[in-house]
Each structure stands twice: as structure tokens, then as C-alpha cells.
TrEMBL record:
<dbReference type="InterPro" id="IPR003785">
    <property type="entry name" value="Creatininase/forma_Hydrolase"/>
</dbReference>
<dbReference type="InterPro" id="IPR024087">
    <property type="entry name" value="Creatininase-like_sf"/>
</dbReference>
<keyword id="KW-0479">Metal-binding</keyword>
<comment type="similarity">
    <text>Belongs to the creatininase superfamily.</text>
</comment>
<keyword id="KW-0862">Zinc</keyword>
<protein>
    <submittedName>
        <fullName>Creatininase family protein</fullName>
    </submittedName>
</protein>
<keyword id="KW-0378">Hydrolase</keyword>
<dbReference type="Pfam" id="PF02633">
    <property type="entry name" value="Creatininase"/>
</dbReference>
Length: 243
């Protein structure tokens, strides 16, 4: 089980919710009632990346956040709207499982409501998919829950929201996402499938953003470290206010 013990080695500080027994969950939740909800997608990410990139990224970042700050990581939700298969001007109909915006909103509302019932005080919803309005829907629902439950905090974000633009911006299978994938799951990436004799484009390669052929594990590590630092500062502020 991927859990980390505190310095006294008597209790776990974080864990994977679906891989723990009730008494283990409650021991962590009593100390740190934080839920991490990774939100991903099954989506075509070109020939060089896996279809589950958004889910792998979101789940991995949530695990790292929980290890650093305590709390419980829920299974990734691979439901997304506004995928590349529906993007105007491109033709990638296969390898994406797309859902309606209405379903995304409803699923988010019901999931957050369940986390309230389960007693969590801070809910971090990390979306690996940045399609619009998919991402805005998640953020809007979170804000509505902040108003509905003022004694709790719901924080919905994408990883680039708290990073400088010169390090990472919203992209689709470009240098940023590909570098993160090289860091977390290098065995799933094959840069050799990308063309070597022309520019990379959205229309031909399903890439939006800077050239993924320049992606490196080292850049992915740099992105992760700064994300964890910035997110952890915010989580610490939320702990002081809501726990």
C-alpha cells in the first residue's frame, strides 16, 4: 500500500482511499480531513503519449500532494467533456471517450456532496484535462460549494494555474504535458513516433503548444517540484483556516 508514516511511525499521514480499511481511513481523516480528487480523461494525445495522460498526471500529482501535506487520495475520475475529438478544425475521432458538459457538472456536484457527507473539510480537485468549458465547470461547481458550505473549502484547479507561464501553460500533449509524463510514467512515452522532418501541428499531431520533441524528464521534475511547493503553501493556509 502506498502510504507514508509520520516521524513517530505510529500512524499513517496519507493514503489511497480505495486501498485502505475503514479504521485506517478514519485515523488519517481524524488528523487531516483533506480529500484529493484527481479528475482525468481518456483522450487522444497524439502518437507519442498514452490516452490516459490527463488521468495519470492528475493522480500522480495528487499522490505527491497527499504525501507532502497529509490526507486521502481518491481514485481518478476519467470523465471529461470538450476533448480533442470535438475540437473545431481537427479530425481525431478515435481514442477519446467524451461525455457531456451536463454530466460533468452533475458528477462533480454529486461527488463533492458525497465528500461533505464523509466529513472532509478540505477538498482539492485537480483536473488533468484543461478543455473548456470542462475546466470552468469544475471550478464553478467548487465555488458554488464554497458558498453552500462556508466551513469547508473546495479548491478546483489545473496544475498550470499556480505556475508561472514561462514554466507551464495550458497545452495538449506538448512539451509541458509530455515532460510531466516522462517524469511520472516514462515507459508510456515514445518521442520517436513524432516526425523529424517537419513542424509539429495540432491538425497532424494533436499537439497544442510548444514542441514535445523538446520534452525531458528533468523539465517534468522541475514542474512537479514547483507545483508541489506552491500548492502546499496554499494547502497550509487552508489548514490554518478550516482544520
Amino acid at each position: 500500500m502506498n502510504i507514508v508514516n509520520d516521524t513517530t511511525n505510529t500512524a499513517s499521514t496519507w493514503g489511497l482511499y480505495d486501498q485502505m480499511r475503514p479504521q485506517e481511513i478514519e485515523a488519517i481523516q481524524k488528523k487531516t480531513p483533506i480529500a484529493y480528487l484527481p479528475w482525468g480523461a481518456i483522450e487522444y494525445h497524439g502518437s507519442h503519449n498514452p490516452t490516459g495522460l490527463d488521468s495519470i498526471k492528475a493522480f500522480s500529482l495528487c499522490k505527491d500532494l497527499a504525501e507532502k501535506n497529509g490526507g486521502l487520495v481518491f481514485p481518478v475520475i476519467s470523465l471529461a467533456a470538450n476533448l480533442i475529438k470535438s475540437y473545431p478544425g481537427v479530425n481525431f475521432p478515435k481514442h477519446s471517450i467524451e461525455f457531456s458538459e451536463k454530466l460533468i457538472r452533475l458528477a462533480c456536484e454529486e461527488y463533492l456532496e458525497q465528500l461533505v457527507v464523509q466529513g472532509f473539510k478540505i477538498i482539492v480537485l485537480l483536473s488533468g484535462h484543461a478543455g473548456e468549458p470542462h475546466l470552468t465547470i469544475l471550478k464553478t461547481v467548487a465555488e458554488a460549494f464554497n458558498s453552500k458550505y462556508p466551513d469547508r473549502r473546495f479548491w478546483a484547479l489545473a496544475e498550470f494555474d499556480i505556475l508561472p507561464d514561462d514554466l507551464l501553460v495550458a497545452n495538449h500533449s506538448a512539451i509541458g504535458e509530455t515532460s510531466l509524463q516522462l517524469y511520472y510514467a516514462p515507459e508510456t512515452v515514445d518521442l520517436e513516433t513524432l516526425p523529424k522532418d517537419r513542424s509539429i501541428t495540432l491538425e497532424l499531431d494533436a499537439v497544442s503548444g510548444d514542441d514535445p520533441r523538446l520534452a525531458t524528464k528533468a523539465l517534468g521534475e522541475k514542474i512537479v517540484k514547483l507545483f508541489l511547493r506552491n500548492a502546499s503553501l496554499i494547502i497550509e493556509e487552508l489548514k490554518q483556516k478550516f482544520l
